[in-house]
Here is the input.
Amino acid sequence: MDQGFPARFQHPASRDREKEKFSVRNLPTLVSGGKHLSTRPPVFVLGSQRSGTTALQSILNHHPDLFLGMEINVNGLLESNRDSLRETLADHFPAADDATWNQSAASQVSALMESLVRQKGKKRWGDKWPSYSRQMARIESFFPDCQFVHIIRDGRDVACSMLAMKSRSEVWRNAEWAPATWAAASQYWHDNVRPALEHGRRLPAERYFEFRYEDMVKEPVPTMHKLCAFLGETPDPLVLRSAQGLKRSSIGSHQRKMDRTALDQWHTCHAASKLLTELGYVVSQQEYGALTI
Here is the structure.
């Protein structure tokens, strides 16, 4: 009965309830509409473009409990929501700090994503976006318990795929970020793999899982078993069948498509050359002359 009355006319107990409603600790619940959010952490797929991230996203989306059917740039959505919430509600929550606003934005986005998950008859959500490999710390500031799955592919094969896309795709042709040379593709691969490796390997084992694209193609069943175990999910037959459909011809494409000149240009990014050998990829005799690491 007191709702809507000025505070001086409200019963003391009602005023206490109203004060509690607008306490800082209740802000995340308030902005999520009071919905009960899942305790299952979201999953973020990492990797350089043309490393099999889309294939992995599709494979995981076949799992009956996982929804990764969209690429929505959760990071951008989180930051936009946080800034909007702060602008709208800061006067009501003057004691809220950055961590609280981040948590509130995460609650709001989680409520949105989990409504989509329920519509799909699933239980948990995840996302893939090209820049996530360079934004892990930012993602963690919103979802401290999230899980990262990092897929890594031979950087020379990535370059072959990138330059092929640049020549046949209008989107890639017009994209300023899309590499147009072997050297640029090498640099791009390094700049998207190295940050994820360094950040991910500092995380607890239950938070970060790293594997090779080549293993997913050559040994799909054991690779998916390991990945599902990391995620705490049952290795569903739909996932295993989906993973078995990848083409082996995608492995080692640089051996057919890159001549000595192309390889020399790729290796002009010495940081990429170093990373390639660190990851255990075989460097042919033809390439040794280009290595100065």
Remarks:
- The CA atoms of residues 7 and 15 lie 7 Å apart.
